[in-house]
Specification:
The structure is a homodimer of 113-residue chains. With 113 residues, chain A is of the alpha+beta class. Helix content of chain A is 67%, strand content 12%. A 3-stranded antiparallel beta sheet of chain A has the order 1-3-2. Chains A and B meet through helix 1, helix 2, helix 3 and helix 6 of A and helix 1, helix 2, helix 3 and helix 6 of B. The structure holds a DNA duplex (30 and 30 nucleotides).
Chain lengths: 113, 113
DNA sequence: GAAAAGAGCAACCTATGGGTTGCGTTTCGC
DNA sequence: GCGAAACGCAACCCATAGGTTGCTCTTTTC
């Protein structure tokens, strides 16, 4: 494939990386990973910030397609989006392959880390 | 391993994700991937911004350990940091494994995407 | 040795990200 | 039906990320 094509695909990943580029959001993702679907108040417990801040982070993750929410009674329950996350994984794998290829090429050029 | 341990490791990755969370920086990484070590003017060619802006992005990537530079005569040449990038790959793989485990668990709970 | 190429430094500007607070609205529990 | 719980909405605040411009300094080049 041409470099520009793989580059375009790489750049599409920017919003996802950006969404994951915040400790608070990574914490939320981690909790949804280990604890399953949770409401906002649940997610706010243990987080060192207000419910509104948590909500904003959740919508940021949602915009990147990483999580998904649904109203349930007076609660809104958030959970990971498996399919989307698998897509991203494949994306990362693809990037990794390109990196590997690039690194191999670079190792031929120079031999330091 | 305990959830808090894997969570701590995940959160350490935040600065790296943040560094990659910008289209301009992903473009720079991509170019260093496909074209090898490049000077600042080279990297500025084709980029829709000033040399200073490119420089700032390069130092952002450098702070995350993704690239590395060296003065060569009147030029400063930037390149990827293979070892560091491999570390990050292993990191991503680890995160992927955790995600897979979590997704398996979630699939047991609910059957939608 | 003078001009030009390549960078570094610093000041500055603006939009936005991350956070808060206050208040209104819906839903649950008794 | 009434209070409390869970949330949505909106305004606001502040730091900083991302970008520019202008000037200086060093290194090539001819």
């Amino acid at each position: 494939m041409r470099a520009s094509a793989s580059q375009a695909r790489l750049i599409e990943a920017a919003p996802v990386f950006a969404a994951l580029g915040d400790p608070a959001r990574l914490t939320l993702v981690s909790r949804l990973c280990s604890e399953g679907p949770l409401s906002i108040v649940r997610l706010t417990e243990g987080a060192r910030m207000s419910r509104q801040a948590v909500t904003k982070h959740l919508y940021a993750l949602s915009d990147a397609g990483l999580v998904h929410s649904e109203r349930s009674g007076r609660e809104r329950v958030w959970q990971l989006r498996p399919r989307r996350i698998e897509e991203i994984r494949r994306h990362l794998d693809q990037i990794s392959l390109q990196w590997d290829a690039a690194l191999d090429r670079l190792r031929v050029l120079v031999e330091d880390g």
